[in-house]
Amino acid sequence: MAFTRKPWAEPYKIKVVEPLKMTTEEYREIKAKEAGFNTFLLRSEDVYIDLLTDSGTNAMSDYQWAGMMLGDESYAGSKNFYYLEDNVRKHYNYKHVVPTHQGRGAEHLISRALIRDGHYVPGNMYFTTTRAHQELAGGTFVDVIVDEAHDSQIELPFKGNVDIKKFQALIDRVGGHNIPYITVGATVNMAGGQPVSMANLIAVKELAHKHGIKVILDATRVTENAYYIQQREEGYANKSIPEILYEFCGHTDGATVSGKKDVYTNIGGFVAVNDDDLFDELRNMVVIYEGLHTYGGLAGRDMEAMSRGIEEMVRQENIEFRIKQVQYLGDMLVEAGVPIVRPVGGHAVFLDAKKIYDHIPQEQYPAQALAADLYIHSGVRAMERGIVSAGRDKDGNEYKPKLELVRLTIPRRVYTQSHLDVVAYSVIDLYQHRHEAKGLKLVYEPKFLRFFQARFERL
Ligand code: PLI
To answer: Least CB-packed of 148, 280, 320, 388 within 10 Å?
Structure first.
């Protein structure tokens, strides 16, 4: 057999399997209608290949599962917390850590601690839960990502970078005293999983600190970002992932983390900071909203799984396979001419629904329709990341993001390359029949984070 490239494969073997249910297109049409054409409202047992999210959907290792049996379920002072604290200090380079039940718990605490009515919070593109907590705390989010991030076709190595001029313009307009912090997302989810360079983060820090503004990292997928720095940024090719990660976080004042991504767990998160007074406030608040400061809404076993997951996430072979697997799916789609966000990002391949369903106006939710159509076509579940996810501003007007995307998110260590072949085949087949597609109308809309529970009907 002749190979066109050197083969590579999963850096693990399979010990336990979970059977998948195969269904027919007619069955899935009924289920899609019952779910209001919202993939969040499907039952997972009706899904064949689930690419809804990489959040909490990871396969844990035998090392993590073994750690679960070592859960110390004491109310206070669990040994699993201290082990987590050690690993956060060692790898993320922050002095203090407060565990939370997941990432949005951490976002809630930091937003409440630092944001007051009338504040502005810049960030390199919004993330749904992050912005929601910033707004609930009285802040106004301001997008300061580079313009190119809003264009799916421009290829840049660090398309998640902050535009320093936009950040400076905001400081000039509202004053540094009205900006408690800037959120820097590492591999920017809504931009397609695009990374931030070390040089950009340093420039952000210098400008922020000059004006008394803190830099808070969304370190949810920071290991993917570290890998891109190693591969793409001058001077980092010979540095290890732990070295890059440590240095990267070291340029920030704190971080919120959803442990459900990089850290290979099914639940968990934390907020970590260097400032002693801020830590004191977070530690005090966590007891109201999450749980005691040594468990923050988690079981001891969950903290142990997270701690062991941190040790695994920084291994070169793990992060390299992760990124290459996503790239593998992206390459197949590019080769077939399917418009996707370029370059392929760290955690997902994003279909450009504006280009694929170019006959459906944004007001008829083309990405929502494409995600529903893909499910009906082949049982593959994806997620809308466009106008529905963007929601409404304070006056009730719909945000109209330039990117109207469908995200095919790859859970870690769950699917094989054969599954991804099936996904690529399905997307390509759907793409070839794209002109038959119809838009949707919104028939039910919840108040917060509408994409989770909104319902639609076909036009
Ligand atoms: O889902 P949580 O509450 O553990 O984490 C919230 C969260 C914060 N930041 C970022 C960049 C995320 O991607 C994120 C959650 N993401 C989800 C659920 C996703 O499907 O992408």
So the answer is: 280
Q: Do domains 25-54+316-458 and 62-313 have the same CATH topology?
A: no
Q: Which two tokens stand for residue 258?
A: 């959803």
Q: How far apart are CA 267 and CA 306, in angstroms?
A: 8
Mutate to test the pocket of ligand 1, among 50, 53, 55 (most ligand atoms within 8 A of CB): 55
Does domain 62-313 correspond to CATH entry 3.40.640.10? Answer: yes
Pocket test for ligand 1, best of 53, 107, 258 (most atoms within 8 A of CB): 258
Q: Cis before residue 11, ω within 30 degrees of 0?
A: no
**pLDDT band at residue 6 under the 50/70/90 scheme:** confident
Mean pLDDT of the chain: 97
Instruction: Please give the span between the terminal C-alpha atoms of the chain, in angstroms, as a whole number.
Output: 50
The structure's pTM equals 0.96
> Which position has the token pair 């669990």?
78
- Domain spans in the chain, listed from the N-terminal domain onward: 25-54+316-458, 62-313
Q: How far, in Å, CA of 319 to CA of 32, rounded? A: 34
Examine the pLDDT at 131 and tell me if it is beyond 80. yes
Say which CATH superfamily domain 25-54+316-458 falls into: Aspartate Aminotransferase, domain 1 (3.90.1150.10)
Query: What is the distance between the alpha carbons of residues 407 and 412, in angstroms, rounded to a whole number?
Result: 15
Q: Which atom of ligand 1 is nearest to the CA of 221?
A: 11
What digits encode the pLDDT tens for the residues 371-424?
999 999 999 999 999 999 999 988 999 999 999 999 999 999 999 999 999 999
> Does residue 258 have its Cβ closer than 6 Å to ligand 1?
yes
